[in-house]
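Thanks for the sequence, V.! I ran VOC family protein right away. Repeating your input here for the record:
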Amino acid sequence: MKFQCIDHVVLTTKNLDKCLAFYRDLLGIPCSEQNGRWTIHLGESAIKIHCRPGEYQPAAGVPTAGSLDICLKLRETEFPAGMALEIARNEIADAGWEIVCDIGERTGANGPMESFYVRDPDGNLVEIMSCGIDD
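Predicted structure:
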């Protein structure tokens, strides 16, 4: 078998309003609702939001709010050259969110990158990354 990419992952939240305020309003990621089901849209991939563990079946063995660890890649062209990560970090910190781990060099799926970490309202670890170019 050969796979192309991740289509979606599921995020379980304790509070839909706070979840949407973080991803949609703070981070500016498009979100949509269809038949009561919310989706966070990231390019060709998505994060499906479930409001209760096992809300939809089949479900993960132990769907738990706060157990996700994801990395989101910034769209570099939306920022002045070389400033994407610093601007994003400052906007998030200025909005009152604690930066868990500040900007540093790390390794992503495609090699070297820089990133920082913040937690969403459920405690999920959200890494914000930049590799200096858009795909």
